[in-house]
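The authors assume throughout that readers already know how a fold can be written as discrete tokens. What matters is that the chain and its backbone geometry are given together, residue for residue. A single example would do more here than another paragraph of explanation. For illustration, here is how one protein appears when written out as sequence plus structure tokens.
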Amino acid sequence: MKRGYKSILFIAVLLLILLVPAAGSLAEEPKDGIVQFGGDITIGEDEVVRGDVVSFNGDVKVLGHVEGDVVSFLGDVTLLGNSVVTGDVVVFKGEVLKEGNATISGRTVASENLEDFKIMDKYPRDNVSYIPTNPTNTFFSSIMQLLGLLGLVALGASIFPKHLNTMSVELTKDLFRTLLIGLAAWIIYPFTMLVLVITLIGIPVAILMGILVPVIFLLGALVSSVALGSARLRPLLSNTFSWAKEPNLLIEGLLGIFVLWLVSKAPIVGWLVIPVIAIFGLGVILTTKFGTNRPWFAKKEKQAIETNSVQLTSDEYVKKDNEIDTSDSIEEEIEIKSGEEENLENK
């Protein structure tokens, strides 16, 4: 019962890790841009678009903030209320309409001829203003992500410590081999899914492989954090802190995941953390069979066991036959002796 409760907690934290970044991005990240073919586009009053808004054969209505150009082909552009466009407003075969306190920081071009579009050449925009990303939301999302990762390490170390330790030891022992196996596996992975989908029969397996992708990422993070903590961080801190002198899977994992989280936030090398973790995760899964070190296919082992059992059975039969022969000979000797004794008595 206790183990089942831990498993539920582990799955909950796993879902938290997967959902928090998405929820954080929805809360803090505006749209990057909109391109639409056919149909109208409406930018809401509280909506912020960090990029260009382009419409083909449709009208554009702006009530919010667009940090870029607004372009409409065969349609009108209407700015209402306190809307702001920090770039140009360009309309081909249409009109530009402004109402209220709408602001256009760039230039306005409404043309019937494409030659007039030369006005869109690059020029300095001294009056362009941008709305910065809210740092509070970014910080909150990062802290929630860190807490979720720390909780994931804690649950992983408590639920399957042996498997986690086996995988981290394998990663530390043969880092380059695990890297090559994981890289080759990720190259083959999408082609395998494609082949399974084409065959139709393998579609369920392909879906399962797709579901396993985030699990591989998170497992790679767990294994990499423990390997980093046990091989580098804990020995480095053992001379300073008493709690770092003895090997401890939980402490090593927490130290490792914290350092990986910090590196992932670095501006230049941070993007490398996720792909490297994914490669290590898949590589260590294939080399250790999820930390069990059991063969993927136990057919040969099963045949060997059956052969041994048959051999053992035959040996037992031989042994029993020998025992029966021995008992028969003993009985014959006893009968002979008893017959001799009867003859002596008669005499």
Observations:
- Residues 18-29, 113-135 have pLDDT under 50 and may be disordered.
- The longest helix spans residues 299-346.
- The helical segments are 2-28, 135-159, 161-173, 175-198, 203-237, 249-264, 273-288, 299-346.
- The chain has eight helices and 13 strands.
